[in-house]
Each structure stands twice: as structure tokens, then as C-alpha cells.
Amino acid sequence: MSTAVKNQLRVCLLAIKYNIMREMLNRVTFLTNIGFMILNNATFILQWMILFHIKEDIGGYTMREVMLLWGLAASTFGLSRIFFARAFSLPDLIVSGKLDSYLVQPKNVLLSVITSATNTSAIGDLLYGLILLCVFCFSLKRLFLFLLFTVTGAVILAAFALLLGSLSFWFLRADAFAQHLMNSFISFSTYPDGIFHGAARFLLYQVLPVGMVIYRPVHVMVDFDMGSLARILAYTVLICALAATVFYRGLRRYASSNLMEARM
Amino acid sequence: MNVIEAENLAKTFRVRQKEKGMKGSLQAILRPRIKEVQAVDGISFSVEAGEMLAFIGPNGAGKSTTIKMLTGILYPDGGRANVLGIDPAKQRKRLAYEIGTVFGQKEQLWTHLTPYDNFRFFGAIYDSPDRETESRIRELADTFELGSFLNTPVRNLSLGQRIRCEIVASLIHRPKVLFLDEPTIGLDPVVKENIRALIKQMNRELGTTIFLTSHDVGDIEKLCRRIIIVNSGRIVLDDSMDHLKHHYLNRKIVEAKLGEETALPAAEGITLLKQKGSQVRFQVDTGRLPINEALHLIDAENLEDINISNIPLETIITDIYKAEGREEKAV
């Protein structure tokens, strides 16, 4: 690994460590945030138990697979928000001219920006996903795949948020559009893909990356397929490259600002 | 040797325009109007190594935009910039190792961390080994007298202490050029004086080139030997401080509140600007009448309050324009 990459990683990890240290300043808030997120997610188990009591199969999924889907969705979203939380608030940084402090540092702006914040409740999401896996469908092979897809999913999700957020370099209220798409992503990612057909299915596999973040990985974990795994990995690399290209193109249009601000 | 060179540097911002009220908002959706604002309009200058340059002008003059182009934050629309032989637009990261920046209006420090942890973080950003960062922190903490609050979270520091920490953070990697954008904004006179002394010391002892933008005439008078005044994105004056002092900073505005209404005695070098009841406002040309002698003209027994200030920067700019026979453009 080159020294430059090592140094970049060192700074990113230090930033993440400092972010978590900040969140831990108030121990009670820190722990309750995590606990309530797990509890909040757990309420949906009951909803699915009732549904599967009425019908044995929903969109080709049984209770076990739905829990796997929920687990992966929660862990992916959690990991993404622990490490790359700022990717989700990029429009605010762009519009308010808050990228200046990153631009005067001799480091990769993109990585420095997206790793500059964290979200405590996301730790709850990450743990909840792992708990679901352990309770409903544990196997060593599945755990390994689950962890791998949590990482690829978190990276794809952050890249997707970055891609949408970068639109703010061109359009003033692009944040609203980005927010709608992210919300759609979250909503769709917690339902079996078998219930969607036609245009909805096209949207989930071709426009929103739900297919590559959640559905295809769940299929691989249930019934391993090397081709699908390779497609997921290739997609991860591609969307990262696309997001970085759009971000750096947009950065040339960055206008900064003279608003008073503090790094919080 | 020149460390900063700007040649016909230009930057235009596209600003969305909107008429007032809901009707204006609707019109802005249907027919958006974009206005082009020329923030920096082809300016050229150079700065020598070790120089302390004041780059000043009123709000919206293009000071911060220029500094942001020189540090690689903004891409110029025209012209070219060169800092320490590096093009900021093309080699931003390489340049960042060589320069330091302090934006008085924008904090770079993490507020929940102590200055010490912040400096360690900045050391990592500049790839400095831990041991070297440690010794640099000790050295700078001594110079900037941070000892008593080095381990206090930044959010609990006073504004003056924070600015000192911001400057130290920008010096961790021993930059050759330091860009200071309004470093004394919002500070009280005592802290301002303290910051100025530190900047001066840094320049003297380390030979750091200082590029300073400020609204405060005091900053410039006390720190810099050369001054560039910009207005509406253009350079209106590039001259030595001595020359500027002689021609433009030789006037003080005195505002006095007297116990009883008294006429100000006429004297050479004094121009009465306004008198309303017991309130009097006059200008002293210190080239013709020293300020202490001017104050003697006021009966001390009759004096209730007094304020002495420099003439506003805007007035200096107007004077420069008049001297050159030009009409000042709207800022």
C-alpha cells in the first residue's frame, strides 16, 4: 500500500474515531440512541409475523428471508451512516459553502468530507441487522456473505447519496430531490422484491440501487451464485467511480460563501 | 523572489435573482433570472518571500474570493495564479502542504475536541510523524501561550483563544505562506493587539510570508509594509504602507460628548464634520496637527465621552478614486 493511501486512511480513521468520541460525550444519549433504534426496528418483526401467519409466502419470501432482508437493510444503512454520514448531507455543505476547510487540506476532499461526521443511532441499525441474522438464519458462510454485502451495500449507498448530493453543485434545491430518492430507497428495501413487477421492478434494479444493495445479495445468501456476487462487486466499483467523477466535476462549480460557521 | 503571482485573475458568480413576495417566487420558478456578478475582475499582483501584504477592501470587494482562488478552494474563470511555483487550481493538494490558511469567519477546528487533539489531527493531515507533531505543538503552544487551555475543549474557549488555536493549527506543518482572511473579526481591541503581535513575531522569526485580508485599518497599519486595496473586484491601489499613511491614514475622526454646548476652537488641521447640541464630530489631520494637541482643544472638564477612530476604509477608497479622477463604482 502506498504511503499516500496509508496516510489518507490514517486521517479518515482518525476522523471517524473523533466523530464517535464526540457522540460518546453524553453517555446516556449515546446508549439510548442505539437502544431505541434497535427497539424501533424490532417492532416491524411483529408486523411480519402477523403477515406470515395469514399467508405463508409473500413475493417468494418466507419469514426467514424477510428477516434476512431486514437485517441486511438495517446493517447496510447503519454502516453507511456510521462511516459516511456526511455523504447524506452533502447538499447542505455545498450550498452553505462548508467545503472550504476540506479544500485547504492536502488530502482527498471526497474522503475527508464523507468521513467527517457520524450518526449514533446508526450503530443501533448495524447491531440490529446482525442480531436478526444470528436469531433467524445464522451460518458461518452466511455471516461472511452478510458482512461482505453490508460493506458493499454501505459503499453503494454512500456513493448513491454522493451522486444525488453532488447535483447541488448545479441545482439549488437538488437536496429535496435527493431526499425523495433516498426515502424511496429505504421504503423499498424492506419489502420482498417478488411483490414488485414491471416499472417498479425496473426502478428498483436500474434507477435506485436497491437491487444491488439488498435484493441480489439476499438471493446470493439464500442460494449462492458466483455470477451475481461478481456483478455486485463490479457495480460497487462502477457507482463509486461515477459518484467520484460527478463530485469532482461539480467541485469546479463550487462557489463557497462567507457565512459564519463552526466545525461541529 | 516572488512566492505569489496573480495575472489577470478573474472570477464570476452566477446569482439567482428573485422579485419580492410570492409572485416573485412563482416567476423565479417559471422564468428564472440569473445575474452574473464579477467578484474578481482581472487582477494582477505579486508578493515576495517574507513579505507581509495587506489585501483590503470593503464588503464584496473580492478579497475572500481572491484568497480562495490562491488557496485552491475556488477555480478561477480567467487568468492564472501561482503560489510557490504551484498552480492552485491544478495542484491543490501539493500546494496545501506548503501553505496555511486561517478564515476568521470559518472554524477549522473540531469544537468538541481539545486544541491538543485538534493539533494532533492536523499533524496527521499533513503526514507529520507523531513525535514531530508533539514537539511542534509544544513549540507553538509556548509561542502562542496556549498552555493554560491546551486541554480544554475548543467550544469552551473564548473567541480570542480560538483564533490563536486556529493560527497554530495552520502552522503545524511549517507553511511558507500564511493566508489570513479577517483573522481579527469580532475580537476585542486587546485580543486584536495580541494576535497582531503574534503574526508579526511569526513573520520575523520564521520568515513566513503573510497575505492578510482585513476590514480593520488597525490590522493593516500595525502589521503590513505593503497594501493592496481592491474594490469591485479590481485593484485600486498597490502601494507601500508609508505612502498610504502619509496620504490617506493621516486623519482621525473624533466624536466627543460635552457637558455643555461649546463651540470647537478653530485650528489648522481640524475640520468640523457635525455639531448637534453638545455632540461634536470633527476630523483631525494628524499630518498638520498631532492628535494629542487636537485633544487639548477640548476642555477636559467639560468632556463626558470621547471616541477616536480611523477614517472608514470606504472613505479612503473614495479619496483614491477622486485622486485618480475616477468615479467610484457601486460596491
Fold and architecture overview:
The complex is a heterodimer of chains A (264) and B (331). Chain A has 12 helices and 1 strand. With 264 residues, chain A is an all-alpha fold. Chain A has one domain. The radius of gyration of chain A is 19 Å and the shape is globular. The model of chain A has no long low-confidence stretch (mean pLDDT 88). Chain B has 2 domains: 213 residues, Rossmann fold, CATH 3.40.50.300; 61 residues, Alpha-Beta Plaits, CATH 3.30.70. In chain B, strand 12 and strand 13 form a beta hairpin. In chain B, 38% of the residues are buried. The interface between A and B is medium-sized, with 31 and 33 residues.
Name the features:
heterodimer; A: mainly alpha; 12 helices; about 75% helix; about 0% strand; B: about 325 residues; alpha/beta; Rossmann fold; Alpha-Beta Plaits; 2 domains; 4-stranded antiparallel beta sheet; disordered C terminus
